[in-house]
Amino acid sequence: MTMCMYTIQKAKQQVLQEIKKAMGKEYSPTIEELTAPPDPKLGDVAFPCFVLARGLKRNPAEIATELAAKIGPKGFIKSVTNTGPYVNFTFHAGTLWAEVLQEIAQPTYGTSEVGKGKKILVEFAQPNTHKEIHVGHLRNFFVGQAAVNLLRANGYTVTPVSYINDLGAHVATCLWGIRNKGGAMPGAKEDRIKFLGEAYVHATKAAEENPAVKTEISAIYRDLENQQGPFLSLWKKTRVWSLRYIRSVFKELALTINGWYCESDLIPDTKALIDRLIKEGVVVKSEGAWIVNLESEGCGVNLLVKTDGTLLYNAKDLALALRKEEDHHPLKSIYVIDARQSLAMRQLFATLKRMKFEKELMHLSYEFVTLKEGAMSSRKGNIIRWETFRDAMTELATKKTAARHTDWKPKQLAATARAIAQAAMRFAMLRQDLDKKIIFDMEEALSFDGFTGPYLLYTSARIQSILKKARRVKPVFHPEILTTHQEHRLVALLARYPEVVFGVGANLHLSALLQYLFELAKAFSEFYETVPVLQAPKPKDVATRLALVGGVGKVLTNGLALLGISTVKEM
C-alpha cells in the first residue's frame, strides 16, 4: 500500500514486525493480511492465521494461541489475545491518540500523494439538451463528483468533463414537436425547458401512432447532422436554452466540471475517423450499415453508421475518446455511465483497442434510480424534474426543522433546510453500492435517525454546539484520561480515516466512505451518552475529551465534504 505514513500505518507496521519476530524466518506477513475484528471490543486489528496454517500444515487456532502468547505489550500495542484462528491486537488509546491528534490538526489529514503527477480524466454529468434534468440524473452527478473529490484527495490531477448530447434523435423529435404541437414559444426563461419536454412527449406519442411522423423526424435528424435544413435555426436557438439551463443546474449542485464536449462538435471528426477506419479495415460494411465485428471479444457487433448514413452514439464516442486524449493526455479515463450502457462501454473499449489506443479506460457503472411511485421516462413524460424534486425535499426539510426551532428567523430556517435537503439527496444516492438499484424515499432520506445524511449533519451540529459551549476551555490532550471503551473506539476510528480515504480512492467503492462516517457518528453518540464531557469531574478530563470531540468534528466535516455535503452549525 502506497500512502502517507499515518499513525495507523505505523501501528500496523509494528504489529507485522512483532508477528514476524514471533514466527522467525518461516513467514513474512503483509499489511493487506491485517483485518478488523468483527467486534471492536476484541481489538483494533486482527491477524488471521489461515494462510500461515496452510503453509505449516497446522491448526490455525493453535498457531493463533502460540502467537498471542509470544507477543507482549510494546509501543502502540497494549495487549494481544486470540479468538479461534485470529490474533487480536489492541492499541494504547493514549499513545495512538497523541499522534493522531497532531495529524488531525493538519488540514491535509486523510489525504495522500499516491497519485502525484498522474492525470485522470473523469467524464460524468452527461444530460441531453432539449430535455429536463430529473431525479434519474442525480446519481450520475453525485457519483461523478464524489469520485473526482476522492481521487483529488489521493493526489491525482483530475479533470472532470461533461459530454452533452445536443444532436441525437431526441433533438429531432423535440424540434418536430415544437413545430407541430401548436402554441406560442415561451417568453419567460423559466418556462423554456418545460416547454421543450412537453414538445418531446408530444412528438414521441405522435411518432408511435403515425409512421410518417417517424420518417419526418429521421429526415430532420439527417439535416441537423449535416448542419442544413429548415430546422437548423430552431435547433441553434433551443440548444442555447438547454446549455444555459444545464450549466445553471451544474452550478447549483456544485459540480466542478472544467471541460465541455458537445456531440455536434464531434461530427466532422467522427466522419473523418470512420473513413480512416474503413480504409484500415477496422470498420466493415454489413447489410448497408458500417460496423466493427467484436464477436471474438464477446462484445457482439458495434454498429457505428446506420443504413441511412446517420452516425450512432458509439461512433461519436470514438471521436470523443481521441479528442479527450488530444486535449488532456490522461493516464486513465473514467466513464461514469449507468449500467444499462455496459455493452456499449465494452464495445467502445474493445474498438479503441483495435485502433491501438493504449490508455487505461474504466467504466464506473451504477444502477438507475426510481421513486416509490415507480420508474420514470422522459419519453412518457412521467419524470420528476430536478426543480420539483429539490423543492419538495426542501419543503419537507423546512417543516421538520421549523417544528424543532419555532424561534428561528426565516433566513436561518431556509438556509438550514436547503443544506439538510442537499445532504439527504446526496447521501441517499451514494449510500448504496453502485450495483444496487435505488428506490428513493424522501421521508426516509430526510430522517434524523439511521443511515442518512441528516443524521450525520445532526451529529456534526451537535459537536459544534458542544465546542461552542466550551469555548473558554482549551482542548488539551492528557493520554491517561482515555480509559473507557467508548473513547478507545473513537480514537481507533479516527486513526482509520486515512486508510478509508485511500481505499475508496483506489477502488471507488464510494459507499465504504459513507459507512465509515456513519460508524464514526454512531460511536460518537454512544460516547457522548455514556462519558461526561463538559460535566466531567476534572479540568483535565474536560480538556482531553473536548480534544477528542473536536477531532471527530473535523473528520466528519472533511469526510462529508468529499461527498459534496456541507455541514451546518445548528439543526
TrEMBL record:
A motif ('HIGH' region) lies at residues 127-137. Residues 9-91 form the Arginyl tRNA synthetase N-terminal domain. SMART domains: Arg_tRNA_synt_N, DALR_1. GO terms for biological process: arginyl-tRNA aminoacylation. Pfam families: Arg_tRNA_synt_N, DALR_1, tRNA-synt_1d. Monomer. This is Arginine--tRNA ligase. It comes from Candidatus Giovannonibacteria bacterium GW2011_GWA2_53_7. The gene is argS.
